[in-house]
């Protein structure tokens, strides 16, 4: 690890990278995924260590970062609030100063974005947002890669896991321009991050949330209405969409609101009627974990338009490309 704050790049929000950097990352993801599928060893991060700090539960984020770092030759330290001094009120600033002298990169899942920002401001090494109340950029990275994989090909995409096509397009982002993503449900960290992605990558998000759970453009960090349109009814948001996506009604940290949310969100369940008004080849995504019968029906999430398992797997591949980029810069 080399101190040198001016060279450090963090990934705290989706807007921390530019469109041309996303184009690069998606191409690198394709290469890294193809090598993985062909059982080719690729270990550019030998002797590098990732510290993962979890203040909230996780399945996909933990496994994808941990497996990804080991596959690239590095090692991992796993910390939680309960087994570290973060849970005993050691300031994020002090924790950052200490941990970043010992490891090469840090991934944090926490509550307030402000904690992540304070940690990053005092870190000597890159910090990645593994989910906060406000944003989930690694998930949207995987979601957009999955969309490109599915819809970027000359035949409309094949998503054959053996050759991991990005379609041979000159720019993997080309297939996103002008597309419509329908967000149905809570105006939460996923919704905020979709809005940031739309502004950077040139697509539109149609948002439908229950009253009282709307997007706050200030929190999302986007221009009001610049890259999204708000619809009262979820069917209107889904009409003509290229991708329909949702999330749980109650995100981690909001469990006390569970009952009132169940009542408020009852009409925001992605079902066959919503998928029927989207484009015939529309995809369905969900960051998981999912609650069948609440935010999505079993027929949709387990149906032919759902790509949720590719979406989950792609967390591994995009995050390997991201860690490689933050630690080594551009390859080749
Ligand atoms: N989608 C996602 O972040 O999953 P986990 O909460 O299991 O990490």
The total count of helices amounts to 12
Question: Beta fraction of the residues?
Answer: 5-15%
The biggest sheet, with number of strands, parallel, antiparallel or mixed sense and barrel status, is:
5 strands, parallel
Secondary-structure element string: HEHEHEHEHEHEHEHEHHEHH
pLDDT average, as an integer?
93
Q: Report the count of strand segments.
A: 9
* Weakly predicted, low-confidence segments: 154-164
| Rg, Cα atoms, Å | 19 Å
Say which molecules are bound, naming each kind only once: phosphoric acid mono(formamide)ester
Structure description:
- The protein has 332 residues and is of the alpha/beta class.
- It has two domains: 147 residues, Aspartate/ornithine carbamoyltransferase (Rossmann fold, 3-Layer(aba) Sandwich); 174 residues, Rossmann fold (3-Layer(aba) Sandwich), CATH 3.40.50.1370.
- The protein contains twelve helices and nine strands.
- The strands form two sheets. Strands 7-6-5-8-9 form a five-stranded parallel beta sheet.
- Strand 1, helix 2 and strand 2 form a beta-alpha-beta unit.
- Helix 1 packs across helix 12 and helix 5 crosses helix 12.
- The longest helix has 21 residues.
- About 3% of the residues have low confidence.
- Bound molecules: phosphoric acid mono(formamide)ester.
- The site of phosphoric acid mono(formamide)ester (CP) has 8 residues, from helix 2.
Keywords:
332 residues; alpha/beta; Rossmann fold; 2 domains; four-stranded parallel β-sheet; 12 helices; 9 strands; 12% strand; binds phosphoric acid mono(formamide)ester
